[in-house]
Amino acid sequence: MKRNLLLIFTALALLAAGCCKQKPVENIIKTPVPTRPAGQQNVLGLTAEPIETVHIGVVGLGMRGSEAVRRLVQIPGAEIVALCDLLPDRVESSQQFISKKGKPVPAGAYSGEQESWRGLCEQADVDLVYICTDWLNHYPIAMYAMECGKHVAIEVPAALDMDQIWGLINQSEKTRKHCMMLENCIYDFFEMTTLEMAQRGLFGEIIHVEGAYCHNLDPFWDEYWNNWRLDYNQKVRGDVYPTHGIGPVCQVLDIHRGDRMTTLVSMDTKSFNGAKIAANHTGMEVREFANGDETSTLIRTEKGKTILIEHDVMTPRPYSRMYQVVGTDGYASKYPIGQYCLRVDKPADQVDARHISDEKVYEGEEMRALQEGYRNVILTPEFEALAKSVGGHGGMDFIMDYRLVYCLHHGLPLDMDVYDLAEWCCVAPLSRVSLEHGSMPVEVPDFTRGAWNQVDGFHYALAK
Questions:
Q1: Other CB atoms within 10 Å distance of the CB of residue 340
Q2: Are the C-beta atoms of 420 and 250 separated by less than 8 Å?
Q3: Closest CA to 239 of 313, 311, 314
Q4: What pLDDT sits at residue 355?
């Protein structure tokens, strides 16, 4: 009997040991990558024939669209030839503005119907369709515009779910047309200078970055036509507006230019303010509000680096895009205080253990003097002054538009491609998946389908 028991216990021990050696089941939600359709190739470094004068059609003339018109008429080599909005008075107002600026009044004027934009996309002389509608209409307009042989530039976020993201990728690859998201924050002056610093090795190897969109929208909810933005937040959980935060830090990390995002996990608070805000604006009782007041998403890359992204439009928290860059030898932060912090190496006999740290912190005038030594290649003093004089979020919108027209004019790759669009937009649907599964990790797909390390780092294309 004792011998039998011994044999049983020995067998169980060996079985347990064998189980321990087996590879554990990966606790991650897989995200499918559709097969690239036959005949398509990736559009990394995509170029098109140079365009002497870039003829632009603007769709959506509300807050963002009317401001885009104001900027685009001041860019050399650009001409607005078509305007579209559901409301005819907005088209007329933009026509009048263009005329007062001494520019030709656009021949194409489309309004009055939900799909009036189809006529603009079909207009023969339009080279670029510039889309500034509500989020829900970004995708169908962009898809049809590329089908009609036009390049497209789409306000943020360009796509709302994974089907739309893959749809835009496939359409751009199929038509060989540029599909760029209008992510203006990569062109802010601090971000552009810090990118230059990182590329020149000032911070050592970058290991962690942070970005956010924290913006109390209380004064702005009523400005969104038909209450579309608040309505979307009420219906959809997750970080629904990640691109301002993630765009600039992805450039620093060379995402799909030597590294890629692999895993994402999200957590959110419950909606403490959302339902109250919706009730105040609709005049009706609101029992459910999907979007948490605060959503945090952590992302890991192939090279073992991390990205933290936050979203908060429901609290009085001060405006912040966070923008922090952490390297092995330095640190940059734009919010709440602009500063750089660099490692100071000292001989062992000069180290004072009573000091918390011996890093060198640059702020104020000292920070600005440091930045002058790392001026971004496209941000000459003259161009910076021009951008600030035209404006658009302090000038970054103008730089975005200028670079878009410049690259199309010279037949160069754009600063942002359709894979940037995909990576920055995918945080919204994938964070929702994570949240709905108890904050489980979710796989971030390789939108380039295997080409994520074929390009050696981010750079601006410049005409020779």
A1: 24
A2: yes
A3: 311
A4: 56
Question: DSSP string of 217-232?
Answer: -TTTGGGSGGGHHHHH
More confident position, 195 or 356? 195
Measure CA of the first residue to CA of the last residue in the chain; give whole Å.
89
| CB atoms near residue 297 (< 10 Å) | 27
- Residues 178 and 146: their CA atoms lie apart, in Å, by 8
To the nearest 10°, report the CA torsion of 322, 303, 163, 432.
-50
pLDDT one-digit tens code per residue, 86-142: 999 999 999 999 999 999 999 999 999 999 999 999 999 999 999 999 999 999 999
Neighbours of 249 (CB within 10 A): 27
Where residue 294 falls among pLDDT bands split at 50, 70, 90? very high
User: Is the pLDDT reported for residue 5 higher than 70?
Assistant: no
- Report, at the CATH architecture level, how domain 186-377+427-442 is classified: 2-Layer Sandwich (3.30)
3-state SS, residue 169: helix
Longest distance between any two alpha carbons in the chain, whole Å: 104
Q: What angle do CA 301, 303, 307 make, to 5 degrees?
A: 35
The pTM score is: 0.92
- Among candidates 46, 284, 227, which has minimal Cα distance to 152? 46
DSSP bridge pairs for 360 = 342
Contact 379, 193 (CB under 8 A): yes
Q: What is the pLDDT of residues 363-388, one digit of tens each?
A: 999 999 999 999 999 999 999 999 99
Q: Which helix (H) or strand (E) holds 55?
A: strand 54-59
Two tokens at 32? 């499918």
Provide, rounded to the nearest whole percent, the portion of the chain with pLDDT above 70.
Answer: 92
Sort strands 54-59 and 128-131 into parallel, antiparallel or unpaired: parallel
Dig out the tokens for 232 from the structure: 């979307």
Element (H, E) at 443: strand 442-443
The residue extents of the domains of the chain are 186-377+427-442
pLDDT band at 282 (very low <50, low <70, confident <90, very high): confident
- Res 251 pLDDT > 90: yes
CB half-sphere exposure, 192, CA atoms < 13 A: 20
pLDDT tens-digit readout, 185-222:
999 999 999 999 999 999 999 999 999 999 999 999 99
What phi-psi label fits residue 100: left (phi over 0), alpha (psi between -120 and 50 degrees) or beta?
alpha
- One-letter amino acid of 445: P
Q: Which residues contact residue 278 at a Cβ distance below 8 angstroms, ignoring those fewer than 6 apart?
A: 230, 234, 286, 289
The amino acid at 320: S
> What is the C-alpha to C-alpha distance for residues 184 and 406, in angstroms, rounded to an integer?
16
